[in-house]
Amino acid sequence: MQLQEIVNTGNFGLAPWIVFLPLIGMLANLLFGRSLGEKASGWIASLASGAAFVVALLLAFSLGANPEGTTVTLGEWIRAGTLNVGWDFRIDTLSVTMMLVVAGVGTLIHIYAIGYMHEDVRHNGDPRRFPRFFVYLNLFIAAMMVLVSADNFLMMFVGWEGVGLCSYLLIGFWFEKGEHGIGNVKAAKKAFVTNRIGDFGLLIAMFIIFWNFGSLQFDAVFEKVPEVAVASPGVLLAITLFMLLGVAGKSAQLPLFVWLPDAMAGPTPVSALIHAATMVTAGVYLVARSHALYVAAPSAQAVVAWVGGLTALFAATIAVGQSDIKKVLAYSTISQLGFMVAAVGMGAFVAGMFHLVTHAFFKALLFLSAGSVIQGMEHGENAAHHAAYRQAAKNKKSADRGAQAFEAGHAGEEQHFDPQDMRNMGGLRSRMKYTYWFYLVGALALAGVFPLAGFFSKDEILVEALHLQPGVFWLLLAAALLTAFYVGRQVWMVFFGTPRSDAAARARENPPVMTVPLGVLAGLAVLGGALNLPGVHSLGKWLEHTIENIPPSEFSFPLAGAALLVALAGLGLAWSVYGREPLPKGFVDPLRRRLGGVFTALEHKWWVDELYDRLVIRPYKRLSAILSDSLDLGFINPLFDGLAAGTASLASFLRRIQNGFVRSYALAVLLGAVAIMAYLLFR
Amino acid sequence: MNPGILFFLVLAIIAIAAAVAMLFSRNAVYSALFLVVNFSTIAVIYLTLGAPFIALVQITVYAGAIMVLFLFVIMLLGAERLSAREPLTWQRPLAILLGVAMLGEVVYVFLFRAGLNVPLSIPTPTFGSPTEIGLDLFNRYLLPFEVTSVLLLVAMVGAIILTRVEKIKRPGGQATRDEATREQAMKDQAIKDQAIRDQVTRQ
Amino acid sequence: MVPLSYYLVLSVIMFTLGVIGVLVRRNALVIFMCLELMFNAANLAFIAFALFYQNLNGQVFVFFVMTVAAAEVAVGLALMVAIFRTKGNIDVDQVSTLKG
After folding, report:
1. B162 inside 8 A of chain C by CB
2. Are B70 and C73 in contact (CB < 8 Å)?
């Protein structure tokens, strides 16, 4: 079959392969991963993901010819009463956009992970765990593809749960590590449980949808929306608000965002793929997909927009006070997700999806570069140790000089040297050149500097916000200022100045298998703005086939200029605090002096986790203990034990009838005969 | 009270008395002999019921052959070695109670419910005569007749096989010693079984 | 002249005595004899009904019952002998290894 044919006639039948190819990769690694060796297992996984990307491209080309899209049915799943759910793949512009992002960024991250995990499994001491990582990654890609290509809510929920599972598996990948040996596992559990609360909301929404619309199929539901809106508007409000709960869980909005910072316990490629580029965007996709429902419930739209806006500002403030390089990026992700959620909430679906795509590019870039920085620091740490030992070995005579050098090698190191702490970094610009330039591109894109991708997408959201939800506009603008500030702070702390520890002084660049994907992502971050340039609106026109009636946003020069000024102001502020003088080793954060108690609050993330612990977790645990001890152990257990004991004693009583004597058996026969005769005579 | 009923009552009392005596007798031989008396009485009752052939068959076969067989076996086995204690304490009272209950029920049916209080007619001489029975046996009931003969053959063969002694016992030698050990083991087992049974009934 | 029910009552009394004997006595041979008593009770009922219905079928049936009873006694007594050889006595209560 010629490529031309496929392009022209549209071969939508390929659709199921976007799920099957990653699954095949997963199976290959699951069954043969150990014996294949690291390179082979990593490249098989990347190839599987890449093949999925190629299929997505083919589907995109087919859509180019038939932009209305189609549904490919693989088979029937549930047929129970009026519920009819099938394995249907929906190929339209919105789902293909997501497919391309997931597979494209996913493949780049797979390739990066080959290099990253090679070091990481050795750093953590279990090289045999390498293939397992790629099994989980491929499973994730498959589940995410199910999510975005679903044609009904239930299949999407399957993918939703699948990505939640993979998130759990990957956060807890080093399950024996972390604080006290269970830190990673606790983070994984937290992610899963918090997501569960969101899933509960989504499930309730699905139930209400089925109850009122009679089907879970997207088309069937969205067609009936005007009817239901007139008949019972409260239903639509309920559906959209419960769905918002699901979005808050999966896309880390207030109040369920607390799992995402802890999820940084997973390896960096995981943070990049799942917790920046793809899984967390599932909530945004859900709202965009259900745009018909949201458009018909304006009060819900307002709620969503405000939740997004508040999250954006809240997370941005916390990011300012973090000193772990990944935590800053985590809160940045939450903040940017707030932007996206606010956008799709207020009805600017194209703006939201545009920002989703560009954010995937530059956030993945930032995370992967951060991973590169961390590995560089770990190399530096090892090098520092070796240098100290060599020094000690050389100076056999001056034992105390050796001891001094030993101490020097360990200087700046507490009990556990944290290669992720930005306070230990510094001056990495000269030691890790590629990483520095790529990181800079990502940072500027995040801040929203012209002409990088982030500028265009963030600006479009701001324009729409000014028209649709002015209150949210100010929240987002403030968040944008803080975004530029904290990302500038990060760049100056990490890359500029002088190295603040021996590890930073001896850091080295990473191999091309890691830096090349960074380069590709950096290119995308630079050029990504072309997806939806103002005036051209390619993405808008592309998405219009799925999301109807979107007025294209007008470009407003004053607003764009204001946004750019805000970004530059933020960067400038960061320079003045962190960049003007090189920060010395063991420095006190300058903001602490200026903001005092507020900075402590920011550092402690406004004590949200502690608050949740007091308000929710401790009472819940007490309730569990009550139910477990008094109800379960005290009542239900003895009830069943009593039943069992009763049965046993009844049995041992009845057993005595079988005494082995024939005469007593004969007596029983006579007894029966007499009884039956009596019954027949006297009834 | 007409003579027929009187005659019948006398015979009935003798039959029942013989049966009761058979039940209560401690000596098995006495039981067998009382049973012979019972059978003979029943044979006389058959005669009054117009079944001469059956009556004489009863005496010949039942009293003459079957009971003789019984007596042979009783004397062969010398069957008096029973342990004194009754292991099942409730057996006797319950059995008597239930037996009486069954008796009461059935008598009730026969006397009051089934309408069978009709006097029987006096049988004609040819009624149960051998000729008549013979005609029936060889015309209508030929197949069952032949089958019964096969049945008797089978019973004969069965009896012979069941009582066959397995090996020729030669004095001394391993076979006899094995046999002796086996017999001793079986006797020990019997004693053990009795002990277990005693334990069970003590519970 | 004698009502049918009298014969039937006699038959039932003999049958009951047989049943009680089977349940109460422990000597296997005596139990067997009580069994024969029960057979006879049934035979008596057959003969009485044969006269009542003026039908010889009852008597023919008794003939066959006797034949079969004879065969059964032969085999049963052979069994008794075999059991005696194994157990040493014919106490029916000793044949009780199938207890639960």
Report:
1. yes
2. yes
Rounded Cα distance between A644 and A2, Å, is 70
Domain assignment of residue C57, given as a range: 4-87
Which member of B91, B98, B108 has the closest CB to residue A674? B98
Q: Identify the helix (H) or strand (E) that includes residue A95.
A: helix A93-124
Angle between helices A349-394 and A93-124 (to 10 degrees): 10
Per-residue confidence at B121, pLDDT binned at 50, 70, 90? confident
Q: For testing the chain A interface, which of C79, C83, C90, C92 should be mutated: the one with the most A CBs within 10 Å? A: C92
Nearest by CB to A661, which of C19, C22, C96?
A: C96
pTM for the model stands at 0.70
Query: Where does chain C have alpha helices with state H?
Result: 4-24, 28-53, 57-87
A582-631: pLDDT as tens digits: 777 777 777 777 777 888 888 888 888 889 889 989 999 999 999 888 88
In a domain, C70, yes or no: yes
pLDDT tens string B152-163: 999 999 999 988
Confidence at B32, pLDDT banded by 50, 70, 90 = very high
Cross-chain Cβ contact C26/A655 below 8 Å: no
C-alpha neighbours within 13 Å on the C-beta side of residue C2 = 25
How many structural domains are present in chain C?
A: 1
CATH of the domain at C23: 1.10.287.3510
Phi/psi at A150 (5° precision): -70, 150
Is residue A22 within 8 Å of A143, Cβ to Cβ?
no
CA distance C51 to chain A (A): 27
| Whether the Cβ atoms of residue B9 and residue C13 lie closer than 8 Å to each other | no
DSSP code at position A12: G
Quick one: pLDDT band at residue B175, thresholds 50, 70, 90? low
| Ramachandran angles phi, psi of A415, nearest 5° | -55, -50
CB count within 10 Å of CB A392 equals: 18
Does a structural domain hold residue C96? no
Rounded to the nearest 10 degrees, the angle between the axes of helix A183-213 and helix A218-231 is: 60
Considering only CA atoms, which of A4, A52, A39, A44 is closest in space to residue A28? A44
Residues 108-127, chain A: which have Cβ within 8 Å of B?
Answer: none
- The alpha helices in B49-141, defined as continuous H runs, are 52-57, 67-77, 91-108, 130-139
* DSSP-derived secondary structure letter, A578: I
Taking the C-alpha atoms of residue B31 and residue B29, their distance in angstroms, rounded to an integer, is 5
C100·A666 Cβ contact <8 A: no
- C42, part of any domain: yes
DSSP structure string for A385-417 = HHHHHHHHHH-SS-HHHHHHHHHHHTTT--SS-
Q: Write down the pLDDT at residue A668.
A: 92
| CA–CA dist A443, A431 (Å, integer) | 19
Letter for the amino acid at C30?
V
CB contact under 8 A, C7 and B22: no
User: What single-letter DSSP state applies at residue A324?
Assistant: B
Q: How many CB atoms lie within 10 A of CB C75?
A: 17
Q: Which residue has the tokens 């401690």?
A: B26
Residue among C46, C20, C48, C50 at smallest CA distance from C34: C20
Phi, psi of B97 (to 5 degrees): -60, -50
Q: Give domain status of residue C38, yes or no.
A: yes
Instruction: Please name the helix (run of DSSP H) or strand (run of DSSP E) that holds residue A80, with its range, or none.
Output: strand A70-80
Report helix, strand or coil for A73. Answer: strand
- How far C45 CA sits from the closest chain B CA (Å)? 10
ipTM of the prediction: 0.92
Taking contacts as CB-CB distances below 8 angstroms, the residues of chain B near C63 are 54, 57, 133, 137
Contact A666 C26 (CB under 8 A): no
Per CATH, the number for B1-84 is 1.20.120.1200
Give the residue from chain B lying closest to C13, CA to CA: B103
How many Å apart are CA A19 and CA A91, to the nearest integer? 13
